[in-house]
Amino acid sequence: MNRQELINQIKEKQSFLCVGLDTDINKIPQCIIDEAKAKDGEDYIFRAICEFNALIIDATAPYCVAYKPNLAFYEAYGVDGILAFEATIDYLKDEYPNHFIIADAKRGDIGNTSKMYAKTFFEEYDVDALTVAPYMGEDSVTPFLGYDDKWVILLALTSNKGSHDFQLTEEINGERLFEKVLKTSQQWGNDKNMMYVVGATQGQMFEDIRKVAPNHFLLVPGVGAQGGSLQEVCKYGMIKDCGLLVNSSRGIIYASNGEDFAEVAAQKAKELQEQMAVELAKINA
Q1: Mean pLDDT value across residues 117-126
Q2: Can you give the pLDDT at residue 226?
Q3: Least CB-packed of 25, 252, 257, 269 within 10 Å?
């Protein structure tokens, strides 16, 4: 999906919501587990993940423009988890081809290894975007940038507490590490094939991000369960083309652990979408 197609989806749906598919067997509603075990016995994991994901996707698709399965939650279950990840991607591409798919894998290694990671996600899985760690430098990132209408989403300023350990450290000239990542990486890619991860908990720091990367899309985790403010993110980070994909995972997919989990997930996604429509109206006013 190219930049204009993504912008068109945001305008059409009045939403820049990304639903994170951080699917954990220990948090899936018991009704899904019981049904999967009844059909597959002890080999229930693949079915349970696929069924849960499909129901969450069906419920939330009207209110979001993107989905972000986190690879760690699938790799943790070995072959069954990886097959469930593949099946989820296939389901999205078959049933909801206009939704943007982000593989949250945080890859990034020496050039030959990154080349194979790129082949995996952009050729084998054919997702739209992949999160990438930039700290091994240019040759670890550029192999991902050689695909048309595919996106690299570089970690810039993340939402976790430990982000301050390195990302805010300053050089002698006062430039912080995340600013160096933003400036340097723009020599490798552009705002049509590169986004940045900026945590919603960073608040007013979005102003500093926009000084360095005024036109790039930002993938923003941390709204909801992590306490980030959607209104604050939009106040400091939104641009005329929106330029934001705001992710919510736990706050949507685990809003209920009862049989009504899909309906509750839909309601939570709708609530965020309605707030996003208000914010989008401000840039068109």
Answers
A1: 97
A2: 57
A3: 257
Tokens of 134: 């930039």
Count CB-CB contacts under 10 A for residue 3: 19
Within its chain, how far is the Cα of 154 from the centroid? Answer: 11
pLDDT score, position 223? 77
pTM of the model: 0.95
C-beta separation of 198 from 156 below 8 A: yes
User: Which residue bears the tokens 């993938």?
Assistant: 219
Q: Which residue has the tokens 């075990």?
A: 37
Q: What span, in angstroms and rounded, lies between the C-alpha atoms of 155 and 79?
A: 28
Helices (H), the chain: 3-13, 30-40, 45-60, 72-75, 78-95, 111-118, 138-141, 163-166, 177-185, 205-212, 230-237, 250-253, 261-284
Higher-confidence residue of 158 and 43: namely 43
The amino acid that residue 87 corresponds to is: A
> Beta-carbon neighbour count of residue 39 at 10 Å?
12
Higher-pLDDT residue of 50 and 231 is 50
Residues 158, 180 contacting (CB under 8 angstroms): no
Catalytic residues: 106
Confidence of residue 168 (pLDDT cuts 50, 70, 90): low
Residue 74 neighbours by CB under 8 Å, 6+ apart: 23, 49, 81, 82, 84, 85
Decide if 178 contacts 157 (C-beta within 8 A): yes
DSSP line for 142-198: GGGG-STT-EEEEEEE-SSTTHHHHTT-B-TTS-BHHHHHHHHHTTT--TTTEEEEE
Query: What is the mean pLDDT of the segment spanning 247-271?
Result: 96
Residue type, 181: V
124-139 pLDDT per residue, tens: 999 999 999 998 999 9
